[in-house]
Amino acid sequence: MCAEPDFSLRIVDGSPPAADRVVDAVRVLPGTSWERDPLADVGDELVVIRPFADGPADRQSGTGNGKGKAREAAERLLRELARQRATALVVAVDRHGAAAVPAAIRVSAARLSLPLLTTTKSLQQWSELAPRVREYRRRHAEWQAEQLAALLNRLPDRLEAADAAVMQHVADWLAAALEGEVLVSDPQRGVLAASPATAAGTFAPLLVGRSVEPSGAVSPNTRFVPLAGAGSGAVLAVTASRPFDDAGTDLTRHAAKVLGLIDQAGRRHHQVADSERQLRLSAFQLLMIGEEAAAQRVMAPLAPGLLDMESLRVYVIDCADEDREITARLAERAVADHALMVRCPAFNHLIVLDPARDGASGNTYDPSGLPLSTPSETAEELRRIVTSLSSHRMGGSRVRQLGEVADAYEEARNALAQASRLPDRVALGEDRMHLVDVLPPKTARRWAGTLLHPLLTLPMSRRDQLLRTLDLGLEVRHKAAGRLLGVHRNTVTHRMNTCFDLLGLDRDRVLNQIAVSTALKIVMAHGHDDLSADPEADFAAMVSVPEVRAWAESFLRPLKDDPRDLPRTLRAWLENDTHVESTATALGISPVTVRAHLRTAAPLIQRELTLDLDGDTLPDDDDHVLSGVRPLAFALHATTGRPHLPSRPVHA
Question: Please, where are the H alpha helices in 557-628?
Fold first, then answer.
C-alpha cells in the first residue's frame, strides 16, 4: 500500500517493521473519539487518526493539564491496538516525517512494537478510500495466484528432470515477480542460480559470514531464506524494488521451498547417477580381468540383459583437454540402453562396449574366426558426436568375444593414433592388419606357449589374474592399469614383477617386454597347444613366413620416403631400451636429432611412440607403453634381423 500513490502512506523512521503486515480493513477514528471511545475488534486493521494538539478535552474541562491527559489517552489507544494486533496506526498529517507525529505517540508505538505510519490524506478521504482496500486486496490476491501458477508452470514433469536449469527458471520467475534480484547460493557449491547474472555481485557483501535466521529479513526490501532440505546449506537471497508485503513474502517462501525440493532432487539424482556409474565401471573392470559372469551379475539389476552378448566392439573416445561430462551426456543419449558406457578412470576418455551385430552376408569372417559386423546405429551416433567436436577422436576395435574386452580395449585405444590423422578422426581396428593376424597360428601357439609356460601352468585363478594384469600393464602405465583394473598401482607392479621373475626375463629390457607382450597376444588370440615347454619352438620360422614379411614391409614403407634413414634410428632406439641419450651415443648423433627422428616416424607408421622423448627417465616407475613399439620391433626384425628379439626364454 505504501507504493500506491492513492493512499499516500509512509512508514515513520524508526518504527517497528510494517512491510509484511496484513491489511484486512481500514478503521477511521474521527475527531477525538479515539481519546474517549472504547475500540471494538481491530485485528489486522489499519487504524487512521489525527494527532492530538494541546489536548482538546482538557481545554474544555479547564484543568490546564490537557496535554498530559491526551498523552494518557494516546497511550491507552496504542496499548489496545498492540494487544489486538492491529496492523498499524496511521497518523493523518500535513506532511510526512517523524516530526509531524507527537513524540508521545512515537515513543509509545516504539515501546509497544506497533507499526507507525503517516498519511497526507484527510480522515474524510480515508473514509472514501476504505472500500478500495478490499479491491486492492482482491487484485493483489489475483496477482499472487497468477504468480503461483507461473511458478508451477516452470516445474518439470519428472523428478529426474529437476536440474540447474529448472532452478534458474524459478530464480528468473521470482526476480520478475518482485522486480528485483535473486541469488541461490551454497557455501560449498557456490552460485546455483542468479537472476540477473549480476545478482552474485549484489549479494556478495551481505552473504560473507552471514548465518541465515528463520525470519530471513535484513531490510524491508531484502530477504535471506534457507532452502528446504536437511543437509543443504543453500540460501535464497532476494532484494525487491519495493518493501516486502505479505504476498511478496509468501512468494519468496514458496520459491525457497520449491528450490529446496529441486536441490534435493538434483542431489539425490546425482547420487543415484554416481552409483550407477560406479556399477558400470565395476562391470567394465570385471570384464577387463575376464570375469564375464560376475560382470553380468553386477549389471543385471541396472540393465538386465545388456551384457548377454557373445561378441562386441569397444570404442574409445578421447576428449582431449575438453570437459568430458559435456561429451558424456551426448554419448549417454546415443548409447541409451543398447550399450555400456563408462568414464575411463585412467584417462580423459569415454569407453563404450557395443554388442556386435552380424553383417548382412553372414559368411564373412575376420582372422580370429568371428563374423565381421557393420558398425551399429550406436556407433554411428558416436561417430557423429566425435566429428562435431573438433578436438575429439575415436578408436574402435574389431569384433571380439565378450571375454576379450581387454584386447578390444587395447585395440580401440591403439586406433586413436590413426584416428587423429583421418578426416573424421574415427578409426576402426580392422582398418589395418595386425601382427597376430599374419603369424602362422600353429607355430605361434607353440612359441608363445613355451615362452609363457611358467605362467600357463599356474592354478587357473592365479594364472588368469596374472595374465590379465601383465597384458594391460605392458600397454599402459601402472597407475592407469590399476585404475582400469580397480586395484592399486603397487599391486600392478608386484604382479608384473612376479610374472617376469617366473619367466626368468629381465623386466627392465624393452625387447623382453615386447616378446612377452606378443606372446600374450598370441595366446589370447590362438590359445596354446599344451602345457609342456617345447625347446624346439622355432621363433625364426614364425617370423619369416611370407605373410609376416609382407606385413612388415607394408608397415615400414612410409618411413622410406624420408631421406634420414629413420629405420636405423628406430632400431638403435629399441636396442638401447628406448633411451634417447644412449641411442644418440650409439649412432654418433645428437639427442635432439634422435627425438626429431622419433617424432617424424610416429605419424608415418600411425603409432604413438609415447615413450619419454624429452628425457631419459620415464615417469611411473619406468613403465613402457608397447602398443606402438611392439609392431615396430617385429617389423624391423622381420625385414632386417634387428633388433634381436629374445627367441628362447631362460627357463627353456
Answer: 566-575, 580-587, 591-604, 619-622
pLDDT at residue 636 is higher than 90:
yes
Pick from 238, 21, 288, 26: nearest CA to 132: 26
pLDDT per residue over 535-571, tens digit each?
667 888 898 899 999 999 999 999 988 889 999 999 9
CA distance 326 to 157: 24
Asked if 341 and 351 count as a contact pair (C-beta separation under 8 A), the reply is yes
Helix axes 460-473, 478-485, angle to 10 degrees: 130
pLDDT in tens, 154-200: 676 555 556 678 888 888 988 888 888 999 888 888 888 898 988 88
Stronger pLDDT, 606 or 93, i.e. the higher one? 93
Q: Cα(121)–Cα(7) distance, rounded to whole angstroms?
A: 7
Q: How many CB atoms lie within 10 A of CB 320?
A: 15
- The three-state DSSP-derived secondary structure of 43-104 is CCEEEEECCCCCCHHHHHHCCCCHHHHHHHHHHHHHHHHHHCCCCEEEEECCCCCHHHCCHH
pTM: 0.61
**Contact between 461 and 574 (Cβ < 8 Å):** no
Residue 632 one-letter amino acid: L
CA distances from 615 to 508, 547, 633 (A): 17, 37, 21
Three-state SS sequence of 400-412:
EEHHHHHHHHHHH
- What burial class does residue 303 get, using C-beta atoms within 10 Å of its C-beta: 0-12 exposed, 13-18 middle, 19+ buried? middle
What is the spatial order of strands in the sheet that 9-11 belongs to?
Answer: 9-11, 116-119, 88-92, 45-49, 25-28
- Name the strand (E) or helix (H) holding 256: helix 246-288
In whole angstroms, give the CA distance from residue 440 to residue 8: 101
Residue 63 has pLDDT above 60, yes or no: no
